[in-house]
Amino acid sequence: MASAACLVAATAGAGAASHARAGDGIRTVSYHGYRVAVPDTWRMVDLAADPDACVRFDVPTVYLGRPADQAACPADLAGRTIGIVIEPIDDASADRVTAQTAIAPRGTATARQPASHSDTIHVAVPSAGVLVTAAHTPDTEDDARRILASATLGQNAEELSEARLLSRRTQETTAVAALAAGGPQPGTYLGRGFDTCAAPSQSAMNAWRTGSPYGAIGIYISGASRSCAQPNLTATWVTNQTNNGWRLIPIELGMQAPCGTRTPKMSSDTATALSQGATAASSAVNAAQALGIPAGSVIYNDIEHYPSTASCKAAVLSYLSGWTQRLHALGYLSGMYSSGSSGIADVCGAYNDTRYLRVDHLWFAWWNGAADTDAGQYCPDAYYANHQRLHQYAGDVTETWNGVQMSIDRNYLDVAGGTEPQPPAFSVIVDNTTAGQFTASTNWGTSSYSAERSGPDYRFAEPIAASDTAWYRANIPATASYEVSVWYPADPGYNDSTPYLIVTPDGNQSVRVNQRLNGGQWVSLGVFTLPAGDGDRVGVSRWTAGTGYVIADAIRITRV
Questions:
Q1: In contact, 157 and 32? CB cutoff 8 Å
Q2: Which of these, 46, 274, 303, 348, has the minimum number of CB atoms within 10 Å of its CB?
Q3: What's the Rg (C-alpha) of the chain?
Q4: Could you tell me the pTM of the whole model?
């Protein structure tokens, strides 16, 4: 690991890394003419000087340069805080400049309100020729955004042409489309697999494919508790591995048990935990689709060991029910990973409890050294018995095959592809222009200003100390659980705390949304019980202490 002193350069060229003290606990870091202010308590690692460094986010760090193959990453890192990676946009990083990457306008170093995907913000800065990745948790997202907003261009910035940047985006889009033939993951497989903190390089995967006993690999595709950067994990990487015969085990490592030590934590309130599980599933599916992992695949939710109590168990099982509901609605299967003595014992203990949905696959950590799917005292043999089990039987081991060494956990799989979940039986979109299904007072104006809108226009109004709700009407076929999502354009002048009202049999529930972020896409408010029949189901209220225009554009209701 490079020390801070190693990064000081009195005369830094365009490709050099440097930093300077800015006072008040802040230092300015410069790379390729991209300058950004970070706390002076952060570690700084020059990857040119230390190319084998593991890019990890469990300690606040700024990494300068191109990440290498990540073979040095230990398998047992725990959690995430915050971190920044600044690297050149070149052939090595091309696959990571995707449709989800925000682009800073020419002559600037910042993008306006870049979206976060799976708790990671990607910003390409053509005027410095760099790709900036900010990894965060829900608690550190504001810090990450402040750091990105501090960026400026130095005199030594070297511009990347628009044609080259668009070419790289096109390459990635083509790679995602090409994976369709890869099939659902992990599919049908009986044998050994491994997981490691960061997806290995292509050369490492090739060496292990021909030399090791493993045929499957766990990959961390989403979640705010992931410790390692994933510079190798792209749609092209996924395509290459499945073409080479590898089976993939997609993993979400996000919210953890409320009684555990790892963060971020799910709510101890079961209704909130249910909604959080559904939201996590939507995020995981977005990540899977961006990598080209198709519907019908299993996504495994990693909930690390926790000291189980009755209330904690109820929260975890509710979270997994929301996770499973949403994955099925989106065409994916659900899996769960945990230690045998906590999460697995709780899930199997509730196998016949109709208050909770069963996951489709069970992945248990029991380091007994036995490469089989016997869960011992943690889960009866009759449960999850139809090719639905994975066993992590050893952990934190180092192995070398064909000269390539990695730190891994060992697994044994007995899984089958199963049947792709049926699509949702009911889904409806209501726009502010949908005839007979949207009502608002004359206090609400109409605008087509933002290109992120749904339909030809949207409605807006100033916030006031009165509701004056704009209502969306829908005919719900049956009293059941439905995901409610909203679409709005984002703008710094729009409201940072817009109240959405959801009509349930137990009264209206309110969810606040920052309409300055994540515009031009469906944003889930959660899963709610909606009553059967035709009536107002979702509203947008003007009663908020937030500032900026309140926006009413479109809503979507989907049965789960």
A1: yes
A2: 348
A3: 24
A4: 0.70
Nearest by Cα to 302 from 352, 345, 357, 249: 249
Which residues pair with residue 461 across a beta bridge?
A: 550
Residue with tokens 């990676």: 85
Question: What is the spatial distance between Cα 68 and Cα 52, in angstroms, rounded to a whole number?
Answer: 6
Q: How far apart are CA 193 and CA 197, in angstroms?
A: 14
pLDDT digits (tens, 9 = 90+) for 301-340: 999 999 999 999 999 999 999 999 999 989 999 999 999 9
174 pLDDT more than 60: no
The answer for residues whose C-beta is within 8 angstroms of residue 174's C-beta and 6 or more apart is none
Asked if 139 and 264 touch (Cβ cutoff 8 Å), the reply is yes
- C-alpha distances (whole Å) from 144 to each of 114, 141, 213 are 11, 5, 41
In this prediction, residue 246 carries a pLDDT of 96
Cβ–Cβ < 8 Å for 174, 97:
no
Closest of 286, 326, 299, 253 to residue 522, by C-alpha:
286
Q: Would you say how long the chain is, in residues?
A: 560
Half-sphere exposure of 204 (CA within 13 A, CB side): 20
CA distance 69 to 231: 8
Q: What is the pLDDT of residues 459-517, one digit of tens each?
A: 999 999 988 999 999 999 988 888 999 999 999 999 999 999 999 998 999 999 999 99
Cα–Cα distance between 350 and 314 in angstroms, integer?
A: 10
